[in-house]
Amino acid sequence: MKRSGLRVFTLMLLVVALTFIGCRVKHPCKVEMGETKNGIIYLEQDLPEDKLVENGSKLDFRAIPDEGYVVGSWIIEGGEFVEGGEAGSKTAKIKITDNFKISVTFVKVYSVSFNVHGENGNIAAAYGENSIESSTIESIPADTEITFTAIPVENYRVDFWSITGGEFKSGGKDGDTTSVVVVNSDISIVVSFTLYQKSFSVGEVSFVMNKIEAVKGTTLGDNSQDNNHEHTVTLSEYFIGESEVTNELWNEVMNLQGDEENYPVINVSWYNSIAFCNKLTKKVYGDDTVECVYYSDSSYNTVYESGTAVFMDISKKGFRLPTEAEWEYAAKGGEDYIYSGSDNIDDVAWYQGNTDWLPKQVKTKAANGYGLYDMSGNLKEWCFDSSDGSSQPASGNNPVGSSGSLRVRRGGDLGSSPDQCVCSYRSISKQPSFDQGMTLRLAGRF
Questions:
Q1: Which residues partner with 427 through β-bridges?
Q2: Looking at residue 172, what is its pLDDT?
Q3: pLDDT, tens digit, for every residue of 413-429?
Q4: Is the pLDDT of residue 62 over 50?
Q5: Any bridge partners for residue 239, and if so which?
Q6: pLDDT tens digits, 326-367
Q7: pLDDT for res 21
Q8: Is residue 444 within 8 Å of 200, Cβ to Cβ?
Q9: Other CB atoms closer than 10 Å to residue 409's CB: what's the count?
Q10: 93 and 218 share a domain?
Q11: Contact, 107 vs 140, CB < 8 A?
């Protein structure tokens, strides 16, 4: 048994020794170049006529793409990379381990340019780990996915994207901040920015007004409303307050004291609101401004301060109340919701179903599609239009209702039912001196 075990051990050592010696035995390996398209590949060293080299040899290869192409990938059999050989690399050092074959794929490349139409922002591009700041990217391999990011300056947003020579894989719609393109041709990308809000300051109080684009022949109203049947209006571009006027802004303009921060000003009459708009215009533009909107005479000679005679010069750039048409169009937010920003009233409004009948801070509910808050609840808001109490809203081009001595109110309030918070609801039963529970939202053409 001992001799038998010794024989087995001896045989095992012999096998290991022969295996080790065999691994180190040199043997010839044939080197073969595979077919390539759109470029060539060659060996830096000279091969013998029989194209045989010993295994373990290290050979240097170089790939040269045709014009308009780049190296794609290296494909080898019977060897291993020592250096290079990555996708896109033009060189590779390879250790030969057996009969060897090499080929390289070449990929079509394209030029991609990206620019901003006008000013007011920048555009950046990135693919893989590469971030590009220049406006043109040369030699981009086919099927490369590039992400473009539009970066607007303050108070601007993306208006539109355009692409020539390709199509967007994702994004690239009006208002999108990003777009993705898969490159398979020369491509040009252009992004444009547009002003969407203006920021103003009075003293240490700032406020924002959002831009509403001009619209032609849009339908307002709802035939289910007795006093607001469907009608068609055309509106010029205008701006409207992001929120209701706050206590801070009112007190700063009217030289009053108060400490209820971020709450809407309450219990202001239509006449108070008109006077406030003119005072705010003077605060922003200067006391000698000619941009006040409201006057005490039809010749627009005397800027309104008080009284019951009010005339509007809407061509001025000062602050004012929105017209009824402007208010409703803005409240709809470019959407088709029941309430201003949602079909779920609790998402966007403070009303009788979710309050203790006390005013709430502005901007604590969701905004609508135009970035406007509290247009379905919290407090009712004055519009400029007048009514006789039974007339329908004015229609046509930039309409302003002027059929009576009553003034129009829009939007729901803390005591309103859901039906009174829909965008089309009108309340027109109050004299302009009425102030209980009333507030205002600013408008203007700047």
A1: 409
A2: 96
A3: 999 999 999 999 999 87
A4: yes
A5: 211, 444
A6: 999 999 999 999 999 999 999 999 999 999 989 999 999 999
A7: 41
A8: no
A9: 25
A10: no
A11: no
Domain final residue pick, 84, 107, 130: 107
Is the model's pLDDT at 2 over the cut of 60? no
Q: Both tokens of residue 387?
A: 């009514």
Is 316 a domain residue?
yes
Is the distance from CB of 125 to CB of 160 less than 8 angstroms? no
| pLDDT for 19 | 43
Of the residues 162, 194, 226, the one at which a domain ends: 194
Q: Considering only CA atoms, give the Rg of the chain.
A: 37
| Contact call for residues 156 and 197 (beta carbons, < 8 A) | no
Q: Is beta strand 215-220 parallel, antiparallel or unpaired with respect to 156-164?
A: unpaired
Question: Which letter, b or e, does each residue of 92-101 get, where b requires 16 or more Cβ atoms within 10 Å of its Cβ?
Answer: bebebeebbe
Q: Which residues pair with 276 in a beta bridge?
A: none
| CA 324 from centroid of its chain's CA atoms | 29
Beta bridge partner(s), residue 199: 208
Q: Which residues on neighbouring strands pair with residue 187, listed in sequence order?
A: 112
Residues 178 and 204 in one domain: no
Question: How does pLDDT run across 391-405, given as a tens digit for each residue?
Answer: 999 999 999 999 899
61 lies in which domain range?
Answer: 27-107
Which residue's entry shows tokens 């096998």?
A: 15
Q: Is residue 2 part of a domain?
A: no
In a domain, 21, yes or no: no
Residue bearing tokens 């759109």: 38
Q: Specify the number of domains making up the chain.
A: 3
Q: Compute the distance between CA of residue 294 and CA of residue 444 in angstroms, rounded to an integer.
A: 12
Residue 11 lies in a domain: no
- Tell me which residue of 114, 106, 164 sits closest to 137, measured CA to CA: 114
Residue (of 143, 228, 137, 130) closest to 183 by Cα position = 143
For residues 330 and 385, give the distance between their C-alpha atoms in angstroms, rounded to a whole number.
16
Q: Domain with 167 in it: what CATH number?
A: 2.60.40.1140
- Read off the pTM: 0.76
Max intra-chain CA distance, the chain? 130
- Among positive and negative, which fits the CA dihedral 83, 84, 85, 87? positive
The angle formed by the CA atoms of residues 87, 88 and 92, to the nearest 5 degrees, is: 75
Q: Are residues 160 and 293 in the same domain?
A: no
Nearest to 150 by CA among 117, 182, 128: 117
CA 257 remoteness from chain centre: 39
Answer yes or no: do 248 and 121 share one domain. no
Tokens 């919701």 belong to residue: 337
Please write down the long-range contacts of 177-180, taking CB distance under 8 Å and 24 or more positions apart. 177/149, 177/150, 177/151, 178/147, 178/148, 178/149, 178/150, 179/147, 179/148, 179/150, 180/145, 180/146, 180/147, 180/148
